[in-house]
Amino acid sequence: MVFYELFCISRTRLVEANLKDLVKQTSLVVMNKGGVVRSLKPLGEKQLPYRIKKHQEYHINGFQWTMQFDANPTAVSELNKRLKVDPRVLRHAVIRLGSKLEDIVASAEKTGGRV
Fold this sequence. Notes:
The protein has 115 residues and is an alpha+beta fold. Helices cover 36% and strands 46% of the residues. β2 and β3 (57-71) form a beta hairpin.
């Protein structure tokens, strides 16, 4: 398994239940493919550095959150496909933090996670 981090910017002013559903569905994509979600971290609503046009609307603010997880590349591919078409998501990026045990342990020390 490879250690990844998802950085996601979703629409602001989402109903709380709608935001929870987005996070739940994102986590379930990883877990249904045999992955493990390590942590979820809300970063809050922030002004974007530039306006983003998504789904025929311009957005200047976004709710940012991260998710650290272990998964295989097929799970990441499916996650990218789903987030790309989800109308609640403005932008997302999946970053590979490591694939070897040495990389993962070093990443956990940098991010404050436990091994």
